[in-house]
Structure formats: structure tokens, C-alpha cells
Fold each of these.
Amino acid sequence: MLSKKTKYALHALTYLGKHKAEGTVLIHDIAEEHGISHKFLENILLELRKAGYLGSKKGKGGGYYLIKEPKDIPLSRVIRLLDGPIALLPCVSLNYYEPCAECKNEAICGINKVMAQVRDETLKILENKTLQDILEGE
Amino acid sequence: MLSKKTKYALHALTYLGKHKAEGTVLIHDIAEEHGISHKFLENILLELRKAGYLGSKKGKGGGYYLIKEPKDIPLSRVIRLLDGPIALLPCVSLNYYEPCAECKNEAICGINKVMAQVRDETLKILENKTLQDILEGE
DNA sequence: CATAAAGTCTATAATTTTTATAGGGTTTAT
DNA sequence: ATAAACCCTATAAAAATTATAGACTTTATG
């Protein structure tokens, strides 16, 4: 399951996508719309900005706005950013690799091999679904 | 990512699959092979038995053994049993459904729709990969 | 039939991760 | 000058995961 962080990030991105015309959107408005803690959401938006998905404007009249096209924001990226690995095991993670302590030899581990396949197929799904798809479903 | 519980369960099932010929296998042996806590693994094997994957024999000379064919143990089942939902959000979980607090109306939520598709495609993968596939990779 | 080996079961402790809050900055429109 | 708004880091609270403990039951065997 996705963490609340990632889920909230998706809601925020969706909100920003829907309100693109308005220029900037307040954290406050997104938080209120979904009943999310303002401060918690603030941290999430900050991460999304640092990762290059959002722009922000400080000071009075400021706020956040999308700086990427919705079609260029795949679920895989958002999940990796906020939740970490997409792979089911650290030993097959492309971006967060770590050996598994209980596994003596990865090269001959059937679990490792199968999980690498699962990762590849899962990635195909999550790289193909984008914010655009979410927006089209609203 | 899978919890250690699920990961250990997969190691245990694999071990049992490999040692099928020996009749029964001791918790102790599996735990030792993978450096897993005996007591932690004990709880996991208990769950696998209650779920109908394993049989056990008590007393001296006892132990655990597979009672399902490896090809009839899909990853999806093991993951659901020990980790819970496969869906990325509670609002699209088939087996552990719960509404999402921050979502006013599921029927018009684009995130919900996309995640339901992701769930279906993910399920296809995890229902197709079985213990058999793991064993063939060892 | 006593004993030791092995699984059963439930409770609780320890640890880690996630979620949430707090509060003092800095920037900017008016 | 002021208030609105994002920026940033630290810490607290809560929840979930991981691990341990210990008493109980079953069974093979000498």
C-alpha cells in the first residue's frame, strides 16, 4: 500500500492539475479540500517542488503550480520519491538496492529472480500511468 | 516493499519445496539456513499452516511440510496472507477494502480509477508467479 | 512410562517507520 | 510596515513491524 504521504501527493498533484488556469494554488486550499493537515501537506509539496514537479511563489499572493505536463508525471516517479522502492525486495530494487541479509547468494536465489521479473512488469504499469490518466478520470 | 514476514515466508516455502523428499523439516533448520529468528519464523509457519499451505507433525521427529503443489501457491496469496492488500490504496482493495478519508466521492475520483487499473494489472502478475517459478530459479 | 523433541498459542516488549506538529525563517505584494 | 505565504529543520506522537518469552500439548522412543 502507498503511504499517506504518497496518496496526499497524488491528491495535491491532481488538484494542481485541475486548477492550472488559476496560476497558483495555496497549500491551505488543497489541505482543506481533502481534510489533510496543512503542515503535513506542506512538507510533501516541498518535496515535490525540490524534485522538479512543482514551482512555487513566495509571499502574499503566492502558492504552488505544476511545472511539468501531467503526461510527464508517471506514478512510478511520485511513488519512488515519497515512498521509496517499487521493487518488492531491496535486493531487486533499481533505485534503492540493498542486499538481503538472509540470502547467501543472490545469483542463485529463485526469489531474487522472480522478484526481478515482478519488478520489471510492475514498472511497466507504473511508468505508463501518469497524472494525465488521473485527471482524465475526474 | 514486502515485509520481512512475507520475505521469510517465501524463503521458508522455498526451503520446504526443495526438501520435499525429506518428509518433514524443522523450523530450526529453516531459521538457521537463513539466519532468521527461530521464534519469529515459528509464527510465520503457523500462519502458513492455518492458511492451508503447510502441514505439520508435532512431537519428536515432527516438523513442517508443504501440502500444496508449488504451482498452486501464487505470490498473490502469500503476500495477501502476511502483508495484506496488494492494491496500492484501501479504496481499491478487493480483499481489504476501506474508504479513503480524504476522498469525498470515490465514484468521481481519478486516483481511484487509475489505482483500480493498477491493481488489476498487478494482480495478473502476482497471480501468475508461483512458488514453482521460484523453485525453478534455484 | 519418563523424557526429550517438536510444534501451538498468546501475550508483550523492542524497534522502526510513518504521521503529525511546532516554530522560527524568508520573501513579496500592497 | 505589515500580513500573507512558502521554507526549513527538528521533534513528538502514533502505528506498524519485528522480535522475544514462556507455558502448553503432542509424540517418538528407550
Note: The beta strands of chain A are 54-57, 63-66.
Amino acid sequence: MNTQHDAETESLVYDDVVRIMDQPSLSATVHEGNSGFTNQRASLADVARLAEVSPITVSRALRNPARVRPDKRKRIQLAVEQTGYSINPYASALKSGRSNIVLAFASNTMSEQFSLALKACAEVLEKAGFLFLVGQTSYSYERETAAIRSLHAMKPAAVMFTGVIELQANREVLRSLEIPIMETWAFPKDPIDMLVGFSNTEAGQLAAELLSRKGYREVAYIGRRSGRGALRLKGFRTQCQLLGMDLVSEVLVDDITGLSKGRSCLHEILKSAVNPQAVFCANDVLALGCLMEARRLGISVPKDLGIIGFGDSDIAAEIPPGLTTIGVDSARLGNEAGKMLIARLSGEIIDEKTRRLDLIVSERGSI
Amino acid sequence: MNTQHDAETESLVYDDVVRIMDQPSLSATVHEGNSGFTNQRASLADVARLAEVSPITVSRALRNPARVRPDKRKRIQLAVEQTGYSINPYASALKSGRSNIVLAFASNTMSEQFSLALKACAEVLEKAGFLFLVGQTSYSYERETAAIRSLHAMKPAAVMFTGVIELQANREVLRSLEIPIMETWAFPKDPIDMLVGFSNTEAGQLAAELLSRKGYREVAYIGRRSGRGALRLKGFRTQCQLLGMDLVSEVLVDDITGLSKGRSCLHEILKSAVNPQAVFCANDVLALGCLMEARRLGISVPKDLGIIGFGDSDIAAEIPPGLTTIGVDSARLGNEAGKMLIARLSGEIIDEKTRRLDLIVSERGSI
DNA sequence: GCTGTCAATGATAACGTTGTCAAATATTAC
DNA sequence: GTAATATTTGACAACGTTATCATTGACAGC
């Protein structure tokens, strides 16, 4: 490798910058207000002095403009712009016990579905002036517990989870926070507070029905041991029995990230006494791993082995022969959750605190 | 669809809970200290009263135990546990002007590479007691600017970006914050502060060399118009020229998320006067989209068309015929960045504020 | 025993905002 | 015009922590 290269080559980035900075619209956004960059931040008192009102009036003008007379409001607005004032969220949170941060915790930030939902939710909430931040729990109860404990100190405006909280103690901690809590991705009968989800049991049932309709008789399951995976398995198992199919193999795993996991799971399945003709994977990553490994082993999909996934990931539609998958509209889920949170945070009386989304079956070539 | 289903079905989640809660180790973690859930939080003063010291001593014992005599330290520790005290981060941040939050902004949280890096970074920082939170900028200068403005109010302990900051005004805002700034994913000669990155220009050069070595003569490029894409293109273009290859088509796009984009780009390329025999895609998602579409169109990879991607995504190795791709070890990048931040945040004098990672070429069947 | 130095602790005063309540002003009713 | 009410504004104190400076006590050196 004899590539001539040094750090300077990359300075193009900054050549680009100059070009970009020439566009007045953007630089205006940045320079708005306070000309230059004063390190000393303006406080409410500074704004108040300039606008010739008391600090508390400034505070009101910013938080609830209707309660301040138009002329003063104008003066205050002007002063805010001149000083480049922005509220100190720490002081505000300290005094009021509230913050404008909405925290979301994802069990796995690498999941396409969760990312889509969180992105949609972020867009809604940021438009409403909230700061939407995401933390990770990595499917670990310990980390989830730690995250929830940190909430007690943070007291965000609201919290959202890509899942439901299972540990009773954590549920109580969350309830004691007295802030809106949004659970998702399942449909328990007793959510902590708000819920935008769907039935995982039904997803399992649908998978069984699809396979039965296609004439499969011996089937297998791959998925997580706990949480939603367990629910999907439950629905699958029940419906298999009902429809007279044999669930000949259940491969239960803890970690489901990475395609290699799906591949090794397929090997597990092939070890079972009775070889199944189809497998339901509790997520698309596992399903794709199976699909890849099947091809590698010369197993024809769907002739020798049918595969159903869950999640309706981007690639499921694209990869030959097309992965049949059950899923929800994740972006819609995030959007709905965001809108519900905003309604609640702005003090509206919510008639419905839960929302159930329909499952979407995308039937493709893999079964 | 006649699936019998109602919300109750999902209550399995909570049956699970009971089982989980029976494990003493976990419930202990939750119940630690303050027995039950007092809504009224304990303050430093409460702890101080119980330990019979002054509040300031408690503060010191928690932040810098070495400065407090062992006997008092013990008493304080005990009092903290009895009261279930946890520090109020808002009060702390208000007074000290610092916080224990480390913010990261990802240009695209749905990217496997960014997710991997952020996850690795989060692990390191959380172990050191920081709260690692992620926001999104969605490759938009407006949102990036908004995010950076919000930093001014938040004053996190440090900030990290999955990229370099291009707008000069934003660079200055960041510098004025006087907190550690971590840029990544490129290797500019004048980073704002800290940097863990690699050369995108070199990535383009490597791609050209690979193709040249395989005997390709007419090649094409697909990628983003700006930022890192532009750098990869620059390196690719330069090296093509040097090696006597013809860059017959450059397809420049703004949005690179989603496989369908790669598919439509392939069509663009096929429209060009001279059909290229190989294409370098500035990321793996685009490359995979091309690969899928090529197969759909009956174009054989690599016989009729060679494809190189960037990012070394999970699926690149798995999908037949195997996607040749150039990338970095994202998890390592995140880990290094996290460790550098911690060193800096704990006041160590850092000898090296930048770190350059090697590019990894994974040669597979697609060229 | 006296002075100087260092470690350990504490008293006081903020940080910048907002909740509470009171005062001032404007508006309406009679 | 006066009284009653509603609207708008402000004074004050507090949220829980930490920076600063002052104090105390311990210990060494002479």
C-alpha cells in the first residue's frame, strides 16, 4: 500500500466550510443575537435590566407570553435578542423541579426499528421545544435499573422506553417520579402510564397462521428467552397447537444482535431429531442470518426451509428471495408516542393513554 | 385473520416479572438504601445532619474522598445509604457550571457503524460515572447548529460528534464552551480539540487501488455530495487518474439512507455513456442496494460489475458473493474516544489529542 | 514553648431561576 | 365617583449545591 497521504489532504473539509459559510442564511442562524461570542452568558437579570422590567416578568414573558402586556413583551423580546440570552436549564430545573429534557432508553440502539421510532419521536418532540436524548440499556436489567435510578435525579419532563418495564421495583420508581412515562413495543394490560404498542403474542399467532396456510407441518422457533421474544413464542406455540402443526424445535438465546447469531441458531435447529420445514425468527436480523446460512449450506429457501422474520426491516424486502416478515410501522409508532407525550406535557387532558397499532404482514418469497 | 387476542394475553410480561423479582440479587440493587420509595428526596443537608458533619464535608466526601478523614467518611457513607441520597445534578451543575452528562450527536443514529461506536463509547464513559446521551442531527446543518446552541445552555462535561464540525461559526461556539470536544470519522489537520478518526481520502485511494489491481479500467462513484463523501470521492478521483482508470460516472446524492437509494443510483450509472465495470459506493448501504439491484437486473457481480462499499457492515461479509468493503473498527473508535475523553475529564495531561485509526480492507467476492 | 506549615473542616455567599404572595394598575359594575 | 374585580407586575425567598475564604487543630522544627 503506497498511498501518498497526510493529514493535510483532509483539509478539504474546511475548504468546503468556507464555501458553506458564504451562504448568508446559515451564518445568520448562527450569529443571531449576541454579535460575536461572549463567554459570559446573559442572565434573566441582564435581560430585565435592559428591558426595564423585573426578572420575574422576563421569566413569565418567555414561558407564558399571554400573561405579559404586549408592549413589555416586545421590549423583552428585543432585550433577549440583544443579549443572546438563553435560559439556564439547570437553574430552571433546580427551582421548578422540571426540565425540558425528554429521555428515551433503547434496549438496543443498533436496531433499525428502534432507531426509526426514536427518530420519528425526536422530530415531534424537538419541534415542540424539548431536548430529546437517547440512552442505552442493552437488554440488561442492571443497566435498565441504573438508568431508571438516574432518572430520579434528572427528573426529565418525560421518559420513553423501547419496550415495557418488567421489574416491579423499577415500575414503582418510575411511577414515583410523577412524570409521563411512555412504554412501547408491546401491549400489556397494565402499563405504567402511557403506551403505544402492539401485541407480540398476536405476532406469533400470525406467523403460525402464515406457515399453516402454506402447508408447513413441522416448524421451529428462534428468539430471545425473555421479554417480547417469550411473548412471540407463546403466541406461536399456542397457534401451532391449534392448527395442528408440530413445533419441533425452540432455540432460545439471550443475545440476538448480529447476523452470526442467526447462522449458529440455524445449525442448532438442524441438529433436532425432526428437521423442521420452516422457522419463525423473533426478529429480522436472526431471520437474515438464517437465510444467509441456509444459502451457504445449499438449503433452498423456501423449498427446503421456509423462514419468517419479525420487524419488517429495510433489507427484508430487498434480499432474495424476499424475507416474509411481520412488523409494525416503527416510524408511526414513534410519531404517535411523541404526539401523545406532547399532548400530555402541555397539560391537555388525554382521553386515551394507550394506543394499539396493527401488525403488518409482508409476505415475500421466503415461505 | 381470526386470531383470538386481547390485551390480557400480554400480561405474561408481568408473570415473568414476578419470577425475575424473586431473584434477590436484582431486587437488592433496586431497594438499596432508602427502604421503600420516599417521594421527598434527601439533600446534602439531611445527610450532613445524620452524619453530624457540615453539608460541605459531605459534598467533599462524595467528590474527593481523600480529602476527608476516614472515620467521617465512613459515617457519611452510612448516612448516604440510610437516606438513599443521590446528588441533585441540576443544583450541582448550576453552582459549578459543570455537569456529568456527556452528549454525543450522531448524524444518523440508524447507521450500524455510528451505533457501534457510540455504544462502545457509552460503555467506557458510563463505567466512569458519566451519563452518556445521544442526540441526532440527521446530516442537517440546521439541526447541528441547533444542537450546538443547546450545548451552550447545557454545558455538558464533554461533547462528541460522529463526524467533524464543518461550519466555522459552530466550531467557534464549541471552542467557546471550553469543554472537551471529540470529533471523529475523519482526520482534518485542525480539529477543534480532540479527534479519533481516519482518512477518508485514503479510503477513496484504497478503493481505486483495489479496482486497478483487479484490472478494472472504467469505474464509477456513488456517494454524498458533501462532507466525508466528498473526501472519499476526492481520493478516489485522484488515484483513478494516477492509475490510469477512467472515472466515467459520479452519482452524487444528498440522502444516503435506505437500500432503495443504492438501487436507484445503480440505474443512474447504467444510463451513462460508457458503462463502468465497477463502482465504488461511499457506504455499505448504498453498495448493498446496488448489489441487490444488480442481481434483480441479471447483472452478475463481480463478472459484469464490481462493487466496493465503505463501512464494513455486518451484512457485507454475509451476503453473497460477499461485499468488498473498506472500513474502520467502529467499536474501537468509540472505545478510544471514550478513553481519551475520560483521561481529559479527570484532569490528566494528554500528550496526544488526536488518534488516527488504520483503514481495514475486507476483500470479498464482489470485485 | 513558639512559630510556621499543612491538613481537615466549616461559615458564608452565591449560581440563575421560579413559586408564593402582595402590591399596583386597569377594568368593570353600580 | 366609588367599590369590586381582574389583570399585570414585582419583592422576596428558596431550590441544593459548591467556590471561596476563614478557622481549627495537628505536627514539625528550632
Note: Residues 43-45, 55-56, 59-60, 63, 87-88, 90-96 of chain B lie near DNA strand D (CB under 10 Å from a C1').
